Amino acid sequence: MIVRRLVRLLDSRLRLSAPVRRAMAKVFPDHWTFMFGEIALYSFVALVLTGTFLALFFEPSTTDRVYHGSYQPLHGKTISAAYASTVELSFDVRAGLLVRQAHHWAALVFIGAILLHLARIFFTGAFRKPREINWLVGVTMLTLALLNGFTGYSMPDDLLSGTGLRIAYSVVESIPLLGGWLAFLLFGGEFPADQTVPRMFFAHVFLVPAALAGLITLHMLILVRQKHSQFPAPGRNEHNVVGSRLWPSYTLRTLALFAAVLAVTFALGGLFQINPVWIYGPYDPARATSPAQPDWYVAWEEGALRLFPAADFRIFGYLVPSPFFPGVVLGALTFLALYAWPFLEARVTGERTAHQLLDRPRDHPARLGVGVAALLFYSVLVGAAADDVFARLLRVPVTSLVWTFRFLALGLPLAGGMLAYYLARALRAGSAPEFAELTRADLHRGAKDDRVPGDGDGPPAARIEVWQEFGLVWRWRYVEPTGGAKDLELTSNIDYPSEQEAAKAARAAYPGVPIGPGRPPPGLELPAAPATRRLGGPLARVFRLAAWLVVLRAVRRSRSR
Amino acid sequence: MYRARRVAAATAVVGVLALPAGFAPTPTPAPTPSGAPATADRGRLLFEQSCASCHGPAGQGTQRGPSLVGVGPASLDFQLSTGRMPLTREQRQPERGKPAFSRADIRAIVDYASTLGGGGGPAIPSVHPTNVQLGQSLFLDNCAACHSAAGSGGALTGGQFAPSLAKATPTQVAEAIRVGPGLMPAFPDTVLDAREVNAIAEYVRALQGRHTDTDRGGLPLGRIGPVTEGLVGWAVGLLLLVLVVRWLGSRAR
Amino acid sequence: MNGHRRRHIRRAELAAAGAFLLAALGAVGFAVGYAFGAQTQLEGVALAVAFAGIAAGLGIWARRLVPAGGHVEEHGGFASPELAAEALADRVTEPGRGWRRGVLVRLLGLAVGSIGLALLFPLRSLIAPRLPGPTHTLRHTPWRSGGLRLVDTTGRPVRADEVTGNDIVVVYPEGHVGAGDAPAFVVRLDPSRFSARPPAAGVGGIVAYSLLCTHAGCAVGLYEQGTGQMFCPCHQSVFDLLAGARPVAGPASRPLPGLPITVDSSGFLRATGDFSSPPGPGYWSRP
Questions:
Q1: pLDDT value for A519
Q2: Are strands A488-492 and C71-74 parallel, antiparallel or unpaired?
């Protein structure tokens, strides 16, 4: 009742009926892998909510003050305000530690979800024309997310993150010509500079979230304008979108995911300790802790720094220090490759048409091979970042692990990429529905790069049916016999005021498919005309309309149950 | 490899002790065996049964074990009470385990072995853990680099490692500080006096969770840090959410 | 709708209702827990139950009570029809049509570009005001004053006779405890074991080096007694103190800079000058 009144209240001020009904009817494909981006989106919301709470307590300053909180080992010590406020948040603010840990866990999940989403987009070719803009926006958001994650855990000025900040400073310093100036510029002077924490705070709390919010909005607007892509399947083609309507199906599911993300965030935040800064102690340039790793999403850089050999050299008397290559060059090449990929691939394959249908990963074995190789490469680097942890666990010298990881970093991507390539070819060449059911014959065909001959231009015996509902509006549906018990039936998402418009939409969605009359869905049959005396005149029409509308509502309610 | 280092370490310790008096810590006389001669006999008996095969009947050292002459009661007590000695199997670095002897037996062996070859070496320190604030500062300055700020241990070169301090008693902490077992530095009285050692012992207790809510945030995941945190983020957080998404979305294309 | 399906629906509705009730309980649990100062784990679980209940309820509603899929929407194509696209392009480029207007557009670009470049100059202010740039600052440390006593991290001056070969002492210049480029350490070594001379003068076997790793600047805090090796925890570089602190493993390429020291008349250690080379990681203009 309340909702109904609210709707009428808003509509009487904003004339919402047509745009909102059209919006609610928008179709979104349902596949579960299409929801990865939403995991990232809702993690971002969780980050903003928990982050707001934290920002109300955190003091972004390296000015010293005396700690008087309840964590005994620090009591009475002179430490930076940033560190002190973080420990106070963890021990003396009620629910402070929960929110702090939830925030940090949400960050780990956020970037992980972005990566899953990126992998899905990559392997299904969703970045191809016309979606290159969204790919560029997405990669930018990944960069910003990495930056925010790093500044986020570096702000508390503790020993572990301060060590990481020192390494980041050295990496910036290593840039030829500009390194020293850039480091001084970004961090505010020689390390450790007083300006660093306040600047990180401002970037972390305002600049980057604002940019992310803007980019997310752009990302979704483009998605809505272009409509979501879909996997090839019966009923789906380059001219339509098949799936659920925004309201109520899609909305309920996405809200459920939102709640699930929050549930996981707080479960992790309450149950698993993360970044216990009070144990690490305040940052001091003369102190060290071992093992020392950054968060996982920066660990690929750390691994590269550990694996890359001591390869300083001098040009004309000037020094190019070795952290430059694993630190700066690798990072730059990674993001350059990410940004350029859609255009590189388009040039290599020569594709110029826009796509609404996705590739299955096997349809493009070269891309799959490259993607698998890249994932393996960065995974090995992440593993290498923990080489001293492995060394201690396995009781082996760290140096031998460094060689092992070097070998893996170069060999595993190559081997894995090639294996993925040939397996994809085998899948594509044969009729095995999935990877676990490949046969030897498929593998042979794959080696020769046979392809399964495509079906004709369309499935036989598919048809479009158009009908009228309640004498008022027209709808159409697509019917395709599947060879099973039930035919595939896809209903148009909106109704149309005339038969011509319905047919036009149907032709646009399914070019070349014959159109004919059809029956409304069962349960929607018009009841027999009442035998009572009919009222005459224009009033009669209004009353009839009202009656049909009442019937329509009643029947719809029973249909949706 | 371990043995070579132990020999080198022992030599270094002995060498240091041989330097002009101003440098070496004043050697305290080995404590006289307490109680009846039966204890001394027990000590000698246990020594001959369990230690002499590698360290020699007079503790003078053999190919299999370094000399124990002058290592001091602290070192002997440390190795025995942490269960590192007697070595039960070949290891690059002896590791903490269940002590092979009872407290009384350990005392007996220490009393006996510390008299070998004339005695000498750091005595078992008496520890009164106190002053956790000073302890934290000292621990982070001197210990965290190898043992990790969280006391969970860390890797060293050559496949060796600084062990976790989760089970270390205050006496063992003090002994290790004075003796410097294995690759660990030895901190003499002039660098860390008794008050400071007491403080470090108190902080190690705090790290172990005694009267301090050190692991307030939940499961500490071994206190290894971002490595295990990242693993949990993927294996728990993202896995759960991917399962949720599989339930909510459709599987058929 | 047959009875079987009706039962399924009923069950789903009950499940969703139960989930929402559980969520409410969780929320109450969180509120009560908070009011009584509850600890982090309980609060987290309560809140997680609350959100999970909503997630489950909405999920059941979406999966079982509301039809999913089965709808199709036509896609009008990604580009406008050719004529319309051309019309748009024409309309947008209207103001700049013609040679003279074209020049105007280019001059506008020049103006905006110039402002953009000029506005880059205030970036210099981001480097802390009143401080010199990196070329000079990175080269020198507070040790350069010469004659400063070595003090430990608590500020206590270090005596030469306190330094042993069994441990290192981390030191700062007196009056500059905590300075970022100044940390150093002293240790006593046996000169007869040196395979290379230390880069800076020691005194009686006591040598001092910069504590900052020459790879990425972390404190090389791990001293391995007996081997004379320093191990950096960040990227596992190993420095051999008996060979002039030369890196023997790991990604560091330059030895640790040495700090020249002497003993003063009272027995305290003093530095006689700055490090033998700039401490910490490398950079372009490093000498």
A1: 82
A2: parallel
Q: How far apart are the first and last CA of chain B?
A: 61
Q: From the list A241, A256, A271, which residue is nearest C73 (CB)? A: A241
Range of the domain at A256: 37-296
Local structure of A382: helix, strand or coil? helix
Cβ–Cβ gap C59/B217 under 8 Å: no
pLDDT digit string, tens, across residues A351-391: 889 999 999 998 899 999 999 999 999 999 999 999 999 99
Please give the angle made by the CA atoms of B163, B168 and B169, to the nearest 5 degrees: 165
**For residue B138, pLDDT beyond 80:** yes
Q: How many CB pairs under 8 A join A and B?
A: 207
Note whether A75 and A113 are same-domain residues. yes
Neighboring chain C residues of A190 at a CB cutoff of 8 Å: 131, 134, 137-138, 180-181
C71 vs A: CB within 8 A: yes
Q: Work out the minimum CA distance from A40 to partner chain C, whole angstroms.
A: 16
Q: A1-13 burial, b if ≥16 CB within 10 A, otherwise e?
A: eeeeeeeeeeeee
Q: What would be the CATH architecture of the domain defined by B2-118?
A: Orthogonal Bundle (1.10)
**H helix intervals, chain B:** 2-18, 37-50, 52-55, 73-81, 103-113, 132-142, 144-147, 170-179, 194-207, 226-232, 239-248
Q: Do C151 and C174 form a contact (C-beta atoms < 8 A)?
A: yes
Is A173 touching C (CB cutoff 8 A)?
Answer: yes
Domain range enclosing C242: 142-271
- Does A86 lie in the same domain as A43? yes
Domains in chain A: how many in total?
A: 3
Do A73 and B232 lie within an 8 Å CB cutoff? no
**Interchain pair B250, C229: CB under 8 A:** no
| Phi, psi at A276, each rounded to 5° | -75, 85
**Contact indicator for A286, C211 with CB cutoff of 8 Å:** yes
- Does A326 fall in a domain? no
Chain A hits for C233, Cβ within 8 Å:
288-292, 388
CA C253 to each of CA A247, B81, C245: distance values in angstroms, whole numbers, following the listed order? 62, 42, 11
Q: Do B190 and C223 touch (CB under 8 A)?
A: no
Q: What is the ipTM of this complex?
A: 0.93
Domain ranges, ordered by start, for chain B:
2-118, 132-207
Strands A515-517 and A463-469 turn out to be: parallel
Beta strands in A62-138 (DSSP E): 64-66, 78-80
Q: Do residues C146 and C260 share a domain? A: yes
Q: Which residues of C touch A242 (CB under 8 A)?
A: 69, 71-73
A399, C251 contact by CB (below 8 A): no
Q: Which chains touch A (3 or more CB pairs under 8 A)?
A: B, C
Percent of chain B with pLDDT over 90: 56
A442 and A481 belong to one structural domain: no
Does the B132-207 domain belong in CATH 1.10.760.10? yes
Sign of CA dihedral C255, C256, C257, C263: negative
C25 inside domain: yes
In a domain, residue A428? The reply is yes
**Which stretches within C94-173 are classed as H helix?**
99-120, 134-137
The two structure tokens encoding residue C206: 């006591």
B90 touches chain A (CB under 8 A): no
A433 in the same domain as A493: no
Q: In Å, what is the CA distance from A182 to each residue of A188, A196, C124?
A: 9, 13, 10
B148 touches chain A (CB under 8 A): yes
Residue of B13, B142, B216 for testing the chain C interface, max C β-carbons within 10 Å? B142
d(CA B81, CA A450): 71
Whether C69 has its CB under 8 Å from any CB of chain A: the answer is yes
pLDDT tens digits for range A103-112:
999 999 999 9
pLDDT band at B20 (very low <50, low <70, confident <90, very high): very low
Q: How far apart are CA A14 and CA C143, in angstroms?
A: 72
